[in-house]
Design brief:
A: mainly alpha, MetI-like fold, 0% strand, disordered C terminus, B: MetI-like fold, 13 helices
Chain lengths: 277, 296
């Protein structure tokens, strides 16, 4: 009885703290969403306002006039999809091979993959920039996408996911005469769907929000993505808060929808536990 | 007989075919650039087109005398010392509270993970106006409380911590979720045994939870430490290294050397230093982890 009272007394401040942290995350995002539709004067008025009393699309129109926002959107979509789709496909294929086949040099090659895990992008960005530029891929989609396809952590995660599957699964398939590719695609891959979906969602989100590589490898305004195009825009002129918020709204909205679609996979906590190594 | 031959062929051919694309991509776009960075660090390369000039270790001797390099290294170390423990401890505590899969816990987890959708650009735009020294919400609240005006984005002593806060805001949820996943895998029986010994919640946390998730804890500490040496995005989108270089991290410094003043050879030498630092951290932590695991 005493313990129960003690627990509830402890429970209230804990919940209050949890809610405060949640508000520190939600309120700024919500405020920014609302502010995207406020007239510029209301955004920088004092005292600050939360709910806009008059709504306007003015910020979006001014943003479209100031920067090539439609190109930014198009490029972000291309960058996100063209890296993520080949990446999850090829990395899962490699993870599958590492997990389910015995072949000469397997351990050496897997250590090579793990070693690249320790090479931070920031260390190699200068030579990478020069290599990709010298291949004639500066300001090209291919140059933007190609270096981002093979990701060591994805290969690692997929290997862990495939390693946990029972041996009978592939043996039954082989007896039925399923080809090796069919075995991977039709039988094994569906078994690791949560990991696969998590990788797609995090991959798209990561590429969409990636700043550094698009910043380095694109120069033309028409080749910039939302992330680096907007960063340059606010860097130039910090007074343009209305259009900046409109841009932020455009940048967040698709990821929010993706997040709501994918969140049941990672909020459960089961998938990410495969990360532990 | 032919079936067996065919089977053996497919069992050797397919695994290599499956891993070939990623291995080639990793060799060209990871390993080759890393080796190039070491080579380039011995050259004077001013533009991407100009002829490189071999200078031996001159770049490295220049680094030792470069006060801006030492400053950026100190800023980075400060980031490591401040941000990593805060994030790991906060995530550990929250994960311990939110381990069970109840509806309210899942909702909190979902909210804490949400900032992952905000790019550094968006995070920067948002917090810069919330902390605005004239019209920001925080300024407003400070005034209501009768406190003075604080210039969050342009005060040498303070701005660093503001950026750390933004980084924490963005990333603590990811660590929390990973810890939750690990804590759910700690066997229930261990907690029951601790309960029998009438160990309190705090005691259970330190003697059951923490040892139970040790591999994940090491993983998070390691990746967070390494990440702290790679801080760039949030600095680039908020202060650009200012005021007075107090937020200029190693990578920010490398970026300005390579892509603003085009000293690519010199910047590569700084990159090599960064790589060696990260390598040392990884090796030290990894061997520590192995020792720890052997003990258990």
């Amino acid at each position: 009885m005493v313990k129960k009272i003690k627990n509830t007394i402890l429970h209230i401040p804990v919940t209050v703290i949890l809610i405060i942290i949640a508000l520190v995350i939600l309120l700024p995002i919500l405020w920014m969403f609302l502010s995207a539709f406020k007239p510029q004067g209301k955004i920088i008025s004092y005292p600050p306002t939360f709910l806009p009393l008059d709504y306007t699309l003015d910020n979006f129109i001014r943003l479209a006039k100031r920067v090539k926002i439609f190109y930014f959107i198009k490029n972000s979509v291309i960058y996100a999809l063209m890296t993520t789709v080949p990446s999850v496909f090829l990395c899962s294929l490699a993870g599958y091979a590492f997990a389910r086949y015995n072949f000469k040099g397997r351990n050496v090659l897997f250590i090579l993959v793990l070693a690249t895990l320790m090479i931070p992008f920031q260390v190699i960005m200068i030579p990478l920039f020069l290599i990709v530029s010298n291949l004639g891929m500066y300001d090209k989609y291919l140059g933007l996408v190609l270096p981002k396809i093979a990701v060591a952590i994805s290969i690692f995660m997929m290997r862990s996911a495939f390693a946990g599957l029972p041996k009978e699964l592939e043996e039954a398939g082989r007896i039925d005469g399923v080809t090796e590719i069919g075995l991977y695609w039709k039988i094994m891959l569906p078994q690791v769907k949560p990991t696969f979906v998590t990788m797609i969602v995090l991959g798209i989100n990561g590429a969409w929000n990636d700043l550094m590589w698009p910043l380095l490898i694109t120069g033309d305004m028409k080749m910039r993505t939302l992330s680096n195009g907007l960063a340059m825009f606010i860097g130039q002129d910090t007074q343009e808060y209305g259009p900046a918020f409109a841009g932020a709204f455009i940048a967040i909205l698709p990821m929010l929808m993706l997040y709501l679609f994918g969140q049941r996979y990672f909020v459960e906590g089961t998938v990410t536990s495969g990360l532990k190594g | 007989m032919r079936m067996a031959m065919k089977k053996r062929f497919s069992m050797t051919f397919f695994p290599y075919a499956f891993i070939a694309p990623v291995i080639i991509l990793l060799l060209v776009f990871n390993i080759l650039p890393l080796l190039s960075a070491f080579v380039m660090s011995n050259f004077d390369i001013t533009t991407s087109l100009g002829r490189p000039k071999f200078v031996g270790l001159a770049n490295f001797t220049e680094i030792f005398a470069d006060s801006r390099f030492w400053n950026s290294l100190l800023v980075t170390l400060k980031w490591t010392v401040v941000e990593v423990p805060l994030q790991v401890i906060l995530a550990l505590i929250l994960a311990a509270i939110l381990t069970e899969n109840t509806l309210s816990n899942k909702t909190f987890r979902g909210v804490y993970f949400l900032p992952i959708i905000c790019s550094a650009t968006v995070t920067g735009i948002m917090w810069k106006l919330i902390l605005h020294s004239n019209v920001g919400y925080v300024t407003y609240i400070f005034r209501l409380l009768g406190l003075g005006k604080i210039n969050f984005m342009n005060s040498p002593g303070l701005t660093f911590f503001v950026i750390v806060f933004m980084s924490l805001w963005k990333a603590f949820g990811i660590s929390t979720i990973i810890f939750v996943g690990a804590m759910q895998n700690v066997p229930k029986s261990l907690y029951e045994a601790a309960e029998m010994d009438s160990a309190g919640k705090l005691r259970q946390f330190f003697s059951v939870t923490v040892p139970g998730i040790a591999p994940t804890l090491w993983f998070i500490v390691m990746t967070r430490l390494i990440n702290s040496f790679q801080v760039f995005d949030i600095v680039y989108t908020t202060t650009g290294g200012g005021p007075n270089f107090t937020t200029e991290t190693l990578v920010t410094y490398i970026y300005t050397r390579a892509f603003e003043v085009y000293k690519m050879g010199y910047a590569s030498a700084v990159s090599v230093c960064l790589f060696i630092i990260i390598l040392i951290i990884t090796v030290v932590l990894y061997s520590r982890m192995l020792v720890q695991e052997r003990k258990n």
